[in-house]
Amino acid sequence: MVENANLKPTAKRYYRKKNDLFSLLMKMKLWPSRSGALHGLKSVEVKGDTAVLTTHCGHSFKVTNSRRSRAARWLRNKNYAEPCRACGVPEWKIEKYGGTVFSRGHGAVLPGQSDVRAGKEAL
Ligand SMILES: [Zn+2]
Question: Other CB atoms closer than 10 Å to residue 61's CB: what's the count?
Fold first, then answer.
């Protein structure tokens, strides 16, 4: 990443790697598609282990909650070619995403995780 001295550096935020896919999707509202476009999510409707995602560019599809899925991996690795133009993902959101670090031993465990130990994780 390019550091610009004139700009306040984007605050880094940390999410635990073990956060499940749905929690991350609901928090970040971004979806890395197989084609390499980063879509903005208009809605995430969770129903048990599946969720229906709707992008701002009008696509709707079902995904399964998995930390090891292609999408979960790509989301963590920031594996995308460019933001979807039709979705109009705002610049600040892309920057915020760029400043997000997925770490095994550090960071927020998002609500809804089954293995959050009381008192241990700061949210
Ligand atoms: Zn899109």
Answer: 11
Measured distance CA(35)–CA(32) in Å, rounded: 8
Backbone angles phi, psi at 28, to 5 degrees: -95, -25
Q: Report how far ligand 1's centroid is from the alpha carbon of 121 (Å).
A: 34
Task: Record the pTM.
Answer: 0.79
Q: How far is the CA of 14 from the centre of ligand 1 (A)?
A: 25
pLDDT tens readout for residues 11-26: 788 998 888 899 999 9
The CA 114 to ligand 1 mean position distance, Å, reads: 31
Residue 52 CA, ligand 1 centroid: distance in Å: 15
Which tokens hold the place of 112?
Answer: 């809804």
